[in-house]
Amino acid sequence: MDQAKRVAKNTGFLYARMAITVFISLYTTRLILAALGATDFGIFNLVAGAIAMLAFLNSAMALATQRFMSYAEGKGDFDAQVGIFNVSIVLHLIIAVLVVLFMEGAGYFLFDGILEIPENRLYAAKFIFQCMVLSTFIGIISVPYDAVINAHENMFLVAILGIVEALIKLAIALYVTTTGFDKLISYGLLMAVMTIILLIIRRVYCHLKYEEVKINVRKYYSKALFKEMGNFAGWTFLGSSTSIISFYGQGLVLNMFFGPRVNAAHGISNQVSGQLGAFSTTMLKALNPVIAKSEGAGNRATMLKMTEMGSKVSFFLLLILYVPVLIEMPYIFNLWLKEVPEYTIIFCRLLLIKNLIQQLFVSVDTSIRAVGNIRGFQISSAIASIFPLLICAGLFTIELPAYYLYIVFMLHAVINAYIILYFANKHCDLQYKPFMQNVVVRCFTTFILMAGCSLIPLFFMDEGFIRLITIGVLSFITYILFIWNIGFGKKEKEWIMPLLLSFISTIKNKIFRK
């Protein structure tokens, strides 16, 4: 129960951040799209959009280091934590150098005929790419600090930094709308500078706050630990890098066959997906260290229980906004954007459905990493990540529409789910049938019933703000009703109620405290 309360407290911090940052981020996107235009926005998403992938790479690599930090903390071994931090510093410096060399080599080929970029914007695109390379290097060598923050479950700091980041992005967007300099170059440069500043703040904070964060490689370096962490980080990097190639490759393939304007639709869809998924990813950020610590303490039963609940709750948190947005997306986009690029709505709808499939297995992925035997899992995932791009290129060669990319990746999400379940059963003792019945069936039944009821106003109301509000209220009522009666089982309700009451009491006391 203490673990659950800690997760709830940390999730509360992150939700407070999200409440502030979501609307700022969406408004920032509106400003940037209006300032840059669809073509330049598509170029930025194509070239400097890899800065967003840097965040994904850092998150994946931080999870690798965090697994060792949390595992050692679960065992209560402080000396091991110091050693892990120092080995992680060396390891990520090596990875950073290799990634930069790879990016510079890849950049030569990207700008020499692969990317479809107008001649007059080529210089701006190359400048942004170099900003991205610098940000990537600094980001990777800062991964150990992100891992320490997450291992200590310091979500208050994560929340503060998230708010600061959103405000800086808004300031950048306001500057770009008024500057007389090249707007695309200004935006790319300032985004890179922001990334560097935030990472420096993390590093300074960790050195001041945490005892295990002290760099003395000669004293704390361990060849055996380096080999163990290098092996784990190497396989993690294989999985995360192929996922990045797959994600970034979507933009490349769309650019090759359809040009920068379709990439603008692709970029907006990913922005919306990221903001709407914040509810769920926020909770998982607080839960992941607990899963690793439970395994480190030798409590496999608790680890699996937290894994199952994490899958359910993260899926249900997506539904809060997903259902009304899926239904009223055309109206919402016309309110939000001055110009809605072609394919944006269908791209976004298919991407959100794909996210729902993936979300059911995210916590299971974390449990595999917590156990530590990830070689076969990462190889299988890496192989599965590459094929969708090849299939999409083939489909576009025969002139099928751009949205087939999202259909292919939706099918990939199903295949990847099978891979995750197979290795969780093999290494974590997770049982197929109970998980499918208690998580997958319950979650999708809840989604289908909730969506079906929320569609009713479409049959007797015209499009407009009143219908949007009606669907929002109806979806929320059915959300509560179906999740409580179908989504959760009896034992889960008995576990959730005391936690929910405790959480409400804590919030109430903070609000009305004299």
Report on this model:
The structure is a single chain. The chain is mostly helical. It has one domain (2-504). It is 87% helix and 0% strand. The chain has helices at 2-47, 50-75, 78-114, 122-141, 143-151, 155-178, 183-209, 217-220, 223-258, 260-276, 278-296, 300-336, 344-359, 362-371, 375-397, 404-428, 432-454, 465-487, 490-512. The chain is globular. 44% of the residues are buried. The model has no long low-confidence stretch (mean pLDDT 79).
What is the percent of helical residues? Answer: over 70%
Given the structure, what is the number of helices?
Answer: 19
The profile of the biggest β sheet is: none
How many structurally independent domains?
Answer: 1
> How many strands appear in the DSSP assignment?
0
User: Span from first to last CA?
Assistant: 28 Å
What is the radius of gyration?
23 Å
Q: Helix- and strand-based class?
A: mainly alpha
Mean pLDDT: 79
**Could you list the spans in which at least 5 consecutive residues all have pLDDT below 50?**
none
**β-sheet strand percentage:** under 5%
Task: Write down the secondary-structure element order.
Answer: HHHHHHHHHHHHHHHHHHH
- Give the quaternary arrangement of the chains: single chain
Which overall shape is indicated by the principal axes computed on the Cα atoms? globular
GO cellular component, one term: plasma membrane
InterPro entries: Poly_Biosynth_Transport (IPR050833)
Transmembrane segments: 12-36, 42-63, 84-111, 123-143, 155-178, 184-201, 313-337, 376-397, 403-424, 439-460, 466-488
Membrane topology: Multi-pass membrane protein
